[in-house]
Design goal:
GO terms for molecular function: undecaprenyl-phosphate 4-deoxy-4-formamido-L-arabinose transferase activity. By secondary structure, the chain is an alpha/beta fold. The chain contains ten helices and eight strands. Helix 1 links the parallel strand 1 and strand 2. Helix 5 packs parallel to helix 8, helix 6 crosses helix 7 and helix 9 packs antiparallel against helix 10.
Length: 312
């Protein structure tokens, strides 16, 4: 009987001391099921540490471990897509390199997937992240619910499994600024969650900075939704109505002779508020236009510098 192949894609950044432990646990869990085999694709997102040498060593030791090294730091989302492009398994897992993913739950997610779902996320009963990362995840979740229409009962995490046809559909997006949640829900709404435990980080801290989180949020806003532009139109309409009503009030007061000299402070405050809102909305429109320009110029989603293990 032919074994079912599971592909694991792990983006690697500053994880030279943790990635081997993560890989070893994946292998030990998969080997408990005789009907399954595995391949592990490790993507070096131009990490400044020695993780690429660790990946090459593991690939030499085990032909089922393969490595992809990117020419520069393209970000986690692009690195995952670079790994997806190399997968051949019927089931494709994504997980982080920090050891927080509950790898022992692999077959629970597969069992849920086999119930007829296309994608299954791990839903954590308790999130083991610092306050900053929890806040970032909360904003990303609310943004995804609003802009992409993700159901409130679905929790998006970095540990999930998808069927191969979903991965192929996601790979059709070849522009920069990918947003994985948007790509998933653009391909299917047949998504479920499995509640499991979240582990503490084995070493170091999250690579997501404020700048990277803002970039990820903007990718979600601008690449998969026009709702921010619709909100801009709505806000503009509200202020136009307020201005029109205020103008009518001024005219009536002028006719009745009850108008008084306007205060400069109130006028300046009003101008600053309206001007600030206009600049924010112009910046949002500029972000859309700038990203369209970059996509038209065929900016790469990622560039593969080196691979290891695929020739075997």
């Amino acid at each position: 009987m032919e074994k079912k192949l599971i592909s694991f894609v792990i983006p690697c950044y500053r994880s030279e001391h943790t990635i081997r432990t993560v890989v070893d646990e994946i292998i030990s869990v998969v080997q408990t099921k005789k009907d399954f085999d595995y391949e592990i694709i490790l993507v070096n997102d131009c990490s400044p540490d020695n993780v690429w040498n660790v990946i090459k060593t593991m690939s030499i030791e085990n032909s089922k471990i393969k490595g992809v090294s990117l020419s520069r730091n393209f970000g986690q989302q692009s690195a995952i897509l670079a790994g997806y492009a190399q997968t051949t398994g019927a089931y494709v897992f994504s997980l982080d390199d920090d050891g927080q993913a509950p790898i022992e739950s692999i077959f629970e997610l597969i069992a849920k997937l086999d119930e007829g779902y296309d994608v299954v996320y791990a839903k954590y009963s308790e999130v083991k992240q610092n306050l900053f990362r929890r806040f970032g995840s909360y904003i990303a979740r609310k943004m995804s619910q609003f802009c992409i229409g993700i159901p409130k009962n679905i929790r998006i995490t970095s540990f999930f499994v998808a069927k191969q046809f979903i991965i192929k559909e996601m790979l059709k997006y070849n522009h920069p600024y990918p947003f994985l949640s948007g790509l998933v829900f653009r391909a299917t709404k047949n998504v479920a969650c499995v509640t499991t435990n979240h582990r503490s980080r084995k070493e170091g801290k999250s690579g997501y900075t404020i700048k990277k989180l803002l970039s990820l949020w903007l990718s979600g806003f601008t690449a998969f939704s026009v709702k921010p532009l619709e909100i801009s139109t709505f806000i503009g309409g509200i202020f136009s109505v307020i201005g029109f009503i205020y103008a009518i009030i001024i005219v009536i007061k002028k006719i009745m002779g009850t108008i008084t000299t306007a205060g400069w402070a109130s006028i300046v405050c009003l101008l600053l508020i309206i001007g600030g809102i206009q600049m924010i909305l112009l910046g949002l429109i500029g972000e859309y236009i700038g990203r369209i320009y970059i996509c038209i110029n065929n900016a790469p989603q990622y560039v593969v510098k080196e691979t290891v293990g695929f020739e075997k």
